[in-house]
Design a protein that fits this description.
Length: about 500
């Protein structure tokens, strides 16, 4: 007799159901197709101990388990629960017909407890779709207890112990009690909070009015930004200000961020609509930044910091201290806002629409400013240090900014607060306008370029030796600057401001 049920597998950001088939045979072996031998032995030990703890006898026969499709190798502990249910149905402890309309997932403890595996995918509002669920009419998903962060849109039942689940299958009236337990868990955990990135304003930066304006332009137009400046010049604070300028996430974007963070193994803050903030250390390797494949996940895809910052800010401090391979990997997400991971086991595409803010010192010792010789570094050492940021990477970053020169008296608190409120409103207005106009439509429906501005744009191409991409960045930044000023046209000063933002394109800027 072959008993069939369904388990839940796949990446939490892209879930799927898997058919679990079980058959008793002569012998004593325990085999699972699609599992490594070590994972199968570990699963056998947990399932056997959990059944014995619930007063059930372990069958004295060989057990063969098939996870369809069997060609995909899996190591997830989420299959403990459906395999245990299939064993109980084969022995007649629970009716086998009850498993045909249900799918289950959960890790079994030695005492029979049902636990989340790694991170529980049921804690996130994700739309569970699968051809198996349509063709076999799966109506209920059995899961470990919810944490209270959110409730899935798919019908589910939650249990804390295998013995309670056995009683549920023996008596249908147990379903009502299970649902009530789920609601109580949600209510008790509703006060859970996650600490988020604190808001920073321009009050924390003295002077640097040019940097503040370019921060508004970068936030409004989603223009990637790289900053050069000595330690203490305000690079990190300015990056946090840009994050604070961003508007709250829409429900759709919040759902996307939730699924991406679930795939990485942790939860996205459900109590706040603020965009994500990621600031990995300079020792982060290539896989940590763009993502990787791992056998610890059912489908093997683990998003990196770039995908975790989707719709938010990715701040890379000490940009030149990252490894060369890690920096060069920034080319693709800067250009296409996606990351394609291709391995022998398969391929996957991760979203990476994050605002990159990079910061680095102007010289190895950090005391130089690039223009004023306030350190002992030789010019050759400075150039060698800055060459760690290659031309192709710098060319893909729209705004290059140098800090540490404009030191003026700080503004009064009232004026600064009013300016900050106006800046946030301006960023929200321009971002809404950008959502309504895409690509070349922005230039046809937005402010038009004056003849003098067009001549200066042509001169920027000649003088700065800009690539086609660099020229497009200048035009885009100038358009955003005109929208910030609420100007009916792109004026000469807007092109000049955008052209001055191409710091790495100026061959003599160090002198």
């Amino acid at each position: 007799m072959i008993v069939s049920t369904f388990g839940f597998a796949g990446n939490p950001g892209s879930p799927s159901f898997v058919r679990v088939e079980l058959r008793f045979e002569r012998g004593i072996l325990f085999r699972i197709s699609g599992f490594s031998s070590q994972a199968a032995r570990a699963s056998h030990a947990r399932i056997r101990s959990a059944l014995i703890a619930c007063g059930q006898r372990w069958p004295g026969k060989a057990i063969t388990v098939n996870l369809a499709p069997a060609e995909l190798s899996r190591t997830s502990t989420a299959f403990d629960l459906p395999i245990a249910l299939a064993i109980l149905a084969s022995r007649g402890v629970i009716p086998a017909s009850a498993l045909t309309l249900k799918a289950s997932a959960g890790e079994l403890g030695l005492d029979g407890s049902i636990r989340p595996w790694q991170t529980s995918i049921f804690e996130n509002r994700i739309n569970i779709t699968s051809p198996l669920s349509d063709s076999n009419k799966i109506k209920t998903l059995i899961s470990p207890p919810l944490s209270g962060y959110s409730e899935p849109i798919f019908p589910h039942e939650t249990f804390t112990h295998l013995s309670d689940l056995i009683a549920y299958f023996k008596s249908p009236t147990q379903s009502k009690n299970s649902s009530n337990n789920s609601k109580l868990l949600l209510k008790a955990s509703s006060t859970i909070t996650i600490q988020t990135q604190s808001e920073s304003t321009f009050e924390n930066i003295q002077g640097e009015e040019t940097a503040k304006r370019k921060a508004i332009i970068a936030a409004a137009g989603s223009h990637d930004l790289i900053m050069l400046g000595p330690p203490g010049s305000g690079k990190t604070v300015l990056a946090k200000c840009i994050h604070s300028l961003l508007p709250d996430l829409s429900p759709k974007h919040h759902s996307e961020c939730t699924s991406i963070h679930a795939a990485a193994g942790h939860l996205f803050n459900p109590n706040s609509k603020r965009p994500p903030w990621q600031s990995p250390h300079s020792s982060t390797n290539l896989n940590g930044l763009i993502g990787s494949w791992s056998t610890l996940k059912s489908r093997g895809v683990i998003p990196g910091s770039w995908s975790l910052a989707h719709h938010g800010v990715l701040f890379l401090d000490e940009f030149a201290e990252f490894s060369r391979g890690t920096l060069e990997a920034c080319r693709s997400p800067l250009e296409s806002h996606t990351i394609s991971l291709v391995r022998a086991a398969g391929s996957s595409e991760l979203p990476a629409s994050a605002l990159l803010i990079a910061a680095l010192n102007p010289c190895p010792c950090g005391r130089g400013t690039g223009r004023v010789k306030s350190c002992s570094c030789q010019e050759s050492e400075i150039k060698r240090y800055l060459r760690k940021v290659s031309g192709p990477v710098a060319d893909r970053i729209a705004i290059h900014l140098e800090l540490g020169h404009e030191l003026t008296e700080p503004s009064t608190a009232s004026t600064s607060a009013m300016s900050w409120t106006s800046a946030r409103a301006t960023v929200a207005r321009i971002r809404k306008w950008n959502l309504e106009h895409h690509g070349d439509d922005r230039f046809s429906h937005g402010p038009q370029m004056t003849p003098k501005a067009a001549d200066l744009l042509h001169s920027c191409r000649t003088v700065l030796k800009l690539s086609h991409r660099g020229l497009h960045h200048v035009r885009n930044v100038a358009l955003t600057a005109a929208l910030v000023d609420d100007s009916p046209s792109i004026e000469l000063e807007h092109i000049a401001e955008a052209g001055a933002s191409r710091l790495f394109d100026r061959k003599t800027w160090l002198r």
